[in-house]
Batch of 4 targets.
Target 1
Amino acid sequence: MSAATSTPMLRFPSFKEDWAENTLEAISEKVTSGSRDWAQYYSEQGALFVRMTNLPKTGIDLLLNDLKFVDLPKSGSEGERTALKPNDILISITAELGKIGLIPEDIGEAYINQHTALVRPRSDTVSPHFVAQYLAAFKSNKRLNRLNDSGAKSGLNLSTVKGFRIKLPSLAEQMKIADFLGAVDRKLAALREKEAALTRFKRGLMQALFSQTLRFKRDDGSSYPDWEEKRLGDVFEEVTEKVGDSDLPTYSISAGKGWVSQKEKFGKDISGDQNERYTALGVGEFSYNKGNSKSYKYGCIYPNDTNEVIAVPNVFISFRRITEETSIGFYAKLFESHHLDRGLRRLISSGARMDGLLNVNKGQFFKLKVPAPLPEEQQKISNALSAMDAKIAAVSNQITKLDAFKKGLLQQMFV
């Protein structure tokens, strides 16, 4: 044990002793990494194969929504060294260094590959939960990244992991801290599940509303008529006004997020000499970003919700409603629900791209079909989905605040 000792800024009042420094190897019964060539054992079912992508960027709870499985041969010792046990700690040692995961009690048969280090603390003398939280804290993550052994290519070798130094209080204080932070993590997990459940409900609600399997009634209880179907160009008109000499903030669309200032997205305004040819987009007017993404394979459409006129790339197809009766919210949610994907897929030649964008003809774009219910029903649908957005945003805000609270605790409770 090292002679270096210290105490944290924030601690439970019943503990007074200094924290003592040690290495991961000294407090562990095992420190190793996974084997190569696991792909030959991939299977539809079998033992869980924990990869670096299953380690969270923050916190210590494994991400188990994207699983791989392996089926090892009955004979041979393959996997014995890297078989996981409850309370093992995993550390990513390539690419994104220092992501931490704590193996849960119900893990079952599971293994890791060479991109992850396995640390098995001596649970009779240290708390694995405490050690995992310690390693996941910002200060520890920063130190781990400074120990990069491979220059430009991120990597940690096992000797570096074994020699990584941590500071520990008594086992009783470790367990007290681990229990407290575990309660915070459980609250965060519950909030994230609530956010996910609300998001799933909203997605199902949009599907039901836009497929007309769920309909609103008039205030007097009578039914609205069947929806008309119109061309996009019958409901909207193209926005052609250019920025010219106007001094407008420059924005781009980020799939899944909407409008983002170019200064925020790229660190600077990238429009340059093209700025005067950018489109001046008013509040509530729409743009179609023809760039494809994982979440929007055929591009995405967002209304300008920034509360100011903005400059947007002229490669976007921008448009506004023809009449004030048309609900911006209704069509914003319709576009968010991927309603135009089928029509856009027909417009896009297989693999055809233009300057990195999907090759969508503007004239054909405005011929795409959209539903056109009565304005009163449009507004009811918009209000219902906006209320769901508000609920999701409220939970998301709780998560942000609690996550910041936990990060503050980690800064002050560890040394």
Target 2
Amino acid sequence: MFATEAKAVEWFETWLWPTGEMCCLLCGSTSAYRVKSGKPMPYRCRDCKRYLSIKSATALKDSKLPLKKWAWAIYLEMTSLKGVSSMKLHRDLGVTQKTAWFMLHRIREAFAEIATEFEGPVEVDETNVGGKRGNKPLSVRRELTGRGPVDMTKVIGMKDRKTNRVVVRVIDDGSAASLHAFVNAHRQKGAKVYTDDARGYIGLDNHESVNHTVGEYVREMAHTNGIESFWSMLKRGYTGVYHRMSVKHLERYAVQFAGRHNVRDMDTVDQMQHVMAGLVGRRLMYNDLIEKEAA
């Protein structure tokens, strides 16, 4: 499908303008037309007088890479259950690792969370990511005491049993305030909630838990096996593909895994179209990605 740049352009055009009628991606006018010379850009709008390309008004804006490489990158990302690393992408596409890393973060923009309220019943659970001593610099490891993981980051997730969809967030702590806020933001009012026996969930309405502390994992309909299965995939991606996810970008990775999980029943081409739809209207600057967090 994407052997040449012309075929890639044709696919993107068919997706953007399925009826064949061009519209401006910047102002929405139907007075857009193709520029014969293709310069300075392939299309121009008669109404807003601006030139544009297929990348305009998407997270791909200002990228100098050909569309066929973007199509390949989206394909590789969507067909890799545990994700694709920037090192692999840079070898497969013939771009630098820095470029591949930025490409993957742009693709993750397609999965940025939108308002989600599940009808339920839902399963809610937390997991801890990171903190492996082996990932720390030698100078830091020398100063660590004790054994086991350090500096873990908490991620909370909810899985809707009716739709099989997942929503995730990075949270600062496991307090009742944090857990209740997440649950109530992503379920419809009164939806049934199943959790483990963490104290932070006490007080939720229409709530039932299983007591993992005493080895109880399933009691009739009460269990969290579905969301725990999702954590398993996230951890396999962490260990086998990325090896490390920085705290700064952890939510971006987690949301990416949730987004890929939510469209896994689609055909591959439909998944790619879903990604493109999610990129429209979004913008991600490289300097924002590498900017250090405020102390």
Target 3
Amino acid sequence: MTPSSRQAAQTTHVGRPARISRQDIARAALAIGLDKATLTAIAKELGVDHSSLYRHIKSRNDILIAAIDLAVQETDWQLDSDHPDGENWRDFAASIAEACWDLFQLHPGIAKAIRNLEVTPPSMICIFSACCQRLEVFGFSAQEATLIMDSIMDMTNDSSIGWQHMQSKGENGTPVSSSLARSWCEMSQKEVALSPYISVMTDIIKGEPKDWWRQKLDLILDGAERLRKR
């Protein structure tokens, strides 16, 4: 290659947009955090121009859908595990709930994004339906299986959003959990008759999030057991 042709090749290479895919954009959004993943931040993460993203996505909501879809696909839902018919349905349902909780903790902002989307990512529909199908094998009707899975997913989503909010900082820089606990303690002093319940709730706010979530999960599964025995 002559000096002039080498220079021309280098000139052609410089400024050429980096090759990215929809999956690259989704993965970058997850790395940043869906609560912080703006188009500008994603473009910077990928080292491309802002306009390059629109070759693969239509909007920020489209990015959220792609990111959630990818995160759900990469979660181990243990759908291939062996569960003898009629014996370990509860273990199966609990394992799905744990996987859902871990997904929300691994990717801050994903639970809230799911709640606010106008459409459901394809992988979520498939996983949800597959879980319901497995519960049918354990003896539940399609209606009952859907009710159980929807209750588990809704409770886990809402709990995750709430706990992540409490872990954030308030306007004065104080953890939201501290401010909430203080408000309950103050009310306990004003409403002595209600203090036993307020005290329990204060301990919950100060405690380990997953412990209280698991108690809620047990409540749902106890109700599912009644459906199954009926």
Target 4
Amino acid sequence: MKVLVIQGANMEFLGRRQPELYGTTTTAELDAAMHEEALKYGLTLDIRYTNLEGEAIGWIYEAERGGTEGLLMNPAGFLYAGYALRDCIKAVSMPYVEVHMTNIDKRGMHSVLAEVADALITGVRVQSYMLGLAAMHHLLTNRG
């Protein structure tokens, strides 16, 4: 089961940007941990980072056409005004799991993408991704 993982705006600086909020785990460390966790569930990950909403939209449609079965995304900076991204997610058939390293509600943020998510996991830093992969596996194996 192939899953597209998109890391949204500003996530490429993970480990360097606001470590008091996001910790010190780097992108390379997070990617390695996600690949290792995905093996437990029989998932193959295609992990991509972007600061451009349109690029993320293109990847999602490409993944849909290519038979990718799920989307796990931390929209990061796209959560505020990612209406085009939200409409894209609504158009595809794959389940969408949204993750955030921090509790965005506690920080006074609202994700415009959350309303189209099949699952939403927030507030447990890197573990948000591991729980997101478990949720994706559940969704993919319990379809119908």
